[in-house]
Amino acid sequence: xxxxxKKVGLITGANKGIGFEVARQIGRxxxxxxxxxxxxxxxxxxxxxxxxxxxxxxxxxxxxxDRDSVVAAAAAIKSEFGRLDILVNxxxxxxxxxxxxxxxxxxxxxxxxxxxxxxxxAVTQAMLPLLRKAPSARIVNVSSGLGSLAQNGDLDHPAxxxxxxxxxxxxxxxxxxxxxxxxxLRKTAIKVNSAxxxxxxxxxxxxxxxxxxxxxxxxxxxxxxxxxxxxTGTYSDSRGIVPW
Length: 244
Ligand code: NAP
Known about the structure:
Elements: E1 8-11, H1 17-27, E2 32-37, H2 40-52, E3 57-61, H3 67-81, E4 86-89, H4 106-133, E5 138-142, H5 149-152, H6 165-184, E6 191-195, H7 213-224, E7 235-237, E8 240-241
Parallel strand pairs: 1-2, 1-4, 2-3, 4-5, 5-6, 6-7
Antiparallel strand pairs: 7-8
Bound molecules: NADP nicotinamide-adenine-dinucleotide phosphate.
NADP nicotinamide-adenine-dinucleotide phosphate (NAP) is lined by residues 12-13, 15-19, 38-39, 42, 62-65, 90-93, 115, 119, 142, 144, 196-197, 199-200, 202-205, 209, 216.
């Protein structure tokens, strides 16, 4: 197993959108980036694009909703690198059959939770032994403002009318993972934080968001590269703390 002086970072769902840009920006700081993707061709193409920009980029097969795939990815990282310095739980989906609580299709809600929450939990569990081997690992859960209980209950919030029970509940659950894991790891150098990228034009929303993808990547990247005196157990966007 090689002893690496460079940091190693895994970004799930990194073949496109915010995840791809997060990988690029982290890679530009000299980190070896592992672009997690469930589609081999898309993942290899993304890694080749970033390698072409001079970054140390590698595709790694990982479908976060498939436990065997997650376990295999952890085993591959262990044998290749022996540790993991950065984990960005970015992979996420929406579903057109999601919607307001009275009418959202339950199968859609289940699909979303399986990827956005259970997927991130499974990846975190599988990668934690490798993260513990790094001197000061960072875990970033890519959440959403839609997962904020406070925002959902704030009648004056501009997004209060957007009610997607599956998607919002998946991100609220992901935020719970952030808080609980940050507590459990508080005596270690590992920091765990939730990032809200902000409403960003990607395939997820038919490119309707007002922010560019680099703008959306900014907060997850900042949290992935936090210095030793940075916070843990927080939820923030590029303007600051988001209320839980
Ligand atoms: P996107 O362009 O649709 O990218 C989503 C990525 O997740 C794709 O690479 C997709 O892979 C991957 N993915 C989905 N299911 C997966 C699975 N089971 N295993 C592995 N990868 C999987 O959307 P995005 O906007 O960049 O979203 C990235 C993250 O930001 C998501 O967690 C999303 O909820 C969050 N977010 C986005 C916004 C926004 O306005 N865009 C706002 C707040 C939060 P495929 O190409 O194979 O589908």
